[in-house]
Amino acid sequence: MTTEPKKRTGCLRKAVKFVVVPLLALLVIAATILTLTSRSPATRESVYLTMSDGTEIAADVWLPADLREGDEVPTVLRAVRYWRGYEPGPMTAIFRTLGLMDFDAEHTRWAEAGYAHVVVDVRGSGASFGQWEIPWSPQEIADLGEVVDWIVAQPWSNGRVGTYGFSYDGNTAEMAATLNHPAVKAIVTQYGDFDGYRYLLWPGGVYNQWFLESWDEFTGRLDVNDVSIFAELAGESPDNIRQVMSGVRLTDDDPDGVRLAEAIASRSQVDLSHIGQAIEYRDDEWGATGMTLGDVSPYSAQAAIERSGVPMYVWASFMDNASAEDAFSRFLTFSNPQKLIIGPWNHGGDEHADPFLPAGTATDPSPDEQFQMVVDFFDAYLKDEPAPEPTWDITYYTLGEGVWKTTDTWPPAGLESRTWYFGEAGSLTAEAPTAETGADEYAVDWTATTGEANRWHTGLFMDDVIYPDRAEESEKLLTYTTPPMETDVEITGSPIVTLHVASTEEDGAFHVYLEDVGPDGRVTYLTEGILRAVHREVADEGEESEYVVQGPYRSLERADATPLVPGDVTEISFSLYTTSVLIKEGHRLRVAVAGHDASVFARYPAEGTPVLTVQRNSLYPSHIELPMKTRE
Prior knowledge:
- This protein is an alpha+beta fold.
- Strands 1-2-5-3-6-7-9-10-11-12 form a 10-stranded mixed sheet, with helices on both faces. Strands 13, 14, 15, 17, 18, 21, 22, 24 and 25 form a 9-stranded antiparallel sheet that branches.
- The longest helix is centred in the middle third of the chain and has 16 residues, at 367-382.
């Protein structure tokens, strides 16, 4: 699989936000005058903070410009893997003034909200010294404790700190709770990875090869201060990129980049692609670190996070990787007070990804409104007023209906599990089969794909999530479809599919999709589930998972892997990713079975083409259980 970066704009919306346009001389002059006379609502100091082991961590400290001597403000802390800021290019100030880009908008908004904003490059990244070896290493998280110590010692600090971030940064924010630092009063984690193996890099034990190889390319280029990676992603020339950014932000005492060069020279590049190819099971170690990905994922730090008692504001999406699954596992396991928002978004929340709405539909709430919701959460815990009594609740969006709902239990009340059985001629019926024979044969099609704007692609570059009409793609899959719905039906929760299947191979991957088929024949993607065949054995009764898992649980560990016996019928039951969707009257539901998704995943087995025989009879009734309720 290629690791060459694709031309993408999603990550640039978050990280660069530039537009390369020809500027008339008059506009340049006018913009320059405005730049020289304008006043920012925030001031910035870029410094190195020295950790107890001597490692220097690069930090930007943004303060409200109107802060007076003796004033004290709360602080929001963000620890980033993808550069804390950008060194400007010749045209940066002009572009900012003309409203074409603004690297510092996030910082100034925090200042306007009455906060100090501290952003650091995690150890071994950006302009920081040290070595990065594994995501969210114990040392990386320990650094945050020392940064918080430094913050609360400053004369402008009111002694209260909130940590926040999304994606990688969301995990650093959450893991800060493990330090049990008395100054850390609240946490916002958005689109994070509660279990980085199960829900992101090896969902169902299937290697998300495109993601890790692309992430390897992206972070590797960032770590040597190569801005041309942004040009390749955006389809622009490197010269144009350098007009608005020349690299990672330098510290104030390093105007010529000498110390940055030292930091980069001191690092060893980590070959993530090699690590990914070596990892197969959940208990396999990450390179030479002696740790698994689970060891550094938040679920493994439950005891320490719960001891903190810190209230958490968690954001996720039904259409972003498996971030909703992550969020529900945390909500149903951890005792920390949690407010959970599950939306219809891309990774990052600035694109509306409801598959029933046109691409480009404005997201609701808007990014500005989402930011204010985060500010309001921090206001309650970090400012001078007494903190409110924490609450536990889930606010979620129903796809196809466009309605937000709130519940304090999951699944919500009023739903019942309904079983739909695979039937002859590709039917999906509420009636259990009565015949003792009946099966369908399917040879895995290695070209089957969910496209390059799916839920797995958005997790890296934050592109919009756009699933095209899957009617043509359905011809590559084994499908079962219901009759038209007689009334509107809501599905909310985790569908569970049970396949009674024989294969010609000892290994394979099962990719199962739940889809809506409209009266016009359009096929709309709703959700999916993934399981590698060798993980078919469900854990024994009494064998508990480390956290609440919706649907059948398996460890995904090496000792529990069980190859298929070619020709033998076996039961394979697993959950699809949680969703909430309204199926309109006259629409049909479809279950589609595949053995591969060429968009991102590795193929199983590496050689050979499995031929699957899916049973659909009274002895082996393959079926799907859907949490449903009928709308009157």
